[in-house]
Design goal:
The protein has helices at about 40-55, 70, 75-90, 95-110, 150-155, 165-175, 195-205, 215, 225-235, 240, 255-270, 280-295, and strands at about 10-15, 25, 30-35, 60-65, 90-95, 120-125, 130-135, 140-145, 190-195, 220, 275. By secondary structure, it is an alpha/beta fold.
Length: about 300
């Protein structure tokens, strides 16, 4: 009775931290605080206004917008949310780290549910990394770590290409946040990676001329293959990295940090390979909204 075109079709606008890569960062007492610039407000306003216009042309009845780490950690997030509501008419729901992990997992496993009985999903974002394990019906464990590709880039990997000392410092910091004891049991699962670091690596490894979803999702990457790509990129300048057709300009400056997080995750957990999914939080939120409407 419920076809794909649902009466209250939910389209998702997720705010990746790349949207806020020019946000002002400053240190409080052992806490990294993000304050969003006015130019960020205006950039997101323009994006959402266009998005809302598209939804109206398609007769969409409900728009669901969620904010993740960038909005969650912003010192002025209330001001930002009010600005978007007043100027665009869209409410932004700020997800907790655990909710982000929960729905990222549901989206990430959605195309592999017949592959195994137990799964693990890693989502390397700009400001945080989510690691979740579970089965086809429920989550068994979930964690959200303040470790992301933008955070590492802006804290440590500031130069392009980064100095060897900076790479060592970044690795040591990432390792301190991803100790082996946190990741016990991961190798016994069907391991999935979602979001831009993983999909970019899959496209690079296959030397795709552009992003091809059906070639990216389901692609298996070995630790050695990821290490080879890291070795190829670590000594290149930003302009050289941008020249790869598989790497978007918005990801070029943060890709090395994302790869380092992924490699440490695989080292600490003992994984030799990981399967890429181009699904994740967006699909998870659609599942959540559908369940609220029809279950």
């Amino acid at each position: 009775p419920h076809q794909l075109r649902l009466p209250s079709l939910c389209l998702l606008a997720r705010f990746f931290l790349e949207y806020f890569s020019k946000s002002k960062l400053f240190l409080g007492k052992k806490i990294l605080i993000i304050s969003l610039y006015q130019e960020t407000f205006l950039r997101v306003e323009g994006f959402l206004r266009d998005y809302k216009n598209t939804c109206e042309r398609l007769s969409v009845e409900r728009i669901c917008a969620v904010g993740t780490s960038a909005v969650r950690d912003a010192a002025n997030r209330g001001e930002f949310i009010s600005f978007i509501k007043e100027n665009v008419g869209i409410d932004i729901e700020v997800l907790s780290g655990n909710d982000e992990a929960q729905w990222t997992y549901r989206g990430g496993i959605s195309e592999f549910s017949e592959k195994a009985g137990r799964f693990s999903v890693i989502d390397i974002g700009g400001g945080s990394t989510e690691i979740i394990t579970g089965d086809t019906r429920k989550v068994h464990s979930k964690m959200s770590i303040d470790l992301g590709s933008v955070r590492i880039t802006e804290r440590i990997l500031k130069d392009s290409p980064p100095e060897t000392e900076a790479l060592i410092e970044a690795y040591e910091f990432i390792a301190s946040q991803l100790p082996k004891e946190l990741l016990v049991g991961i190798p016994s699962t069907f391991s999935i990676g979602v979001a831009g670091t993983l999909t970019t690596l899959a496209a690079l490894h296959q030397n795709l001329p552009h992003y091809i979803p059906e070639r990216v999702t389901g692609y298996s990457l070995s630790y050695d293959a990821i290490g080879m790509i890291f070795g190829m990129l670590k000594d290149k300048s930003l302009s050289q990295i941008i020249s790869f057709p598989q790497i978007s300009s918005g990801r070029a400056d943060i890709l090395l940090a994302g790869i380092m997080i992924l490699m440490r995750y695989m080292e600490a957990s003992g994984l030799q390979q990981i399967t890429v999914s181009d699904r994740g939080l967006r699909y998870g939120i659609i599942y959540r909204q559908s369940e609220q409407l029809f279950l």
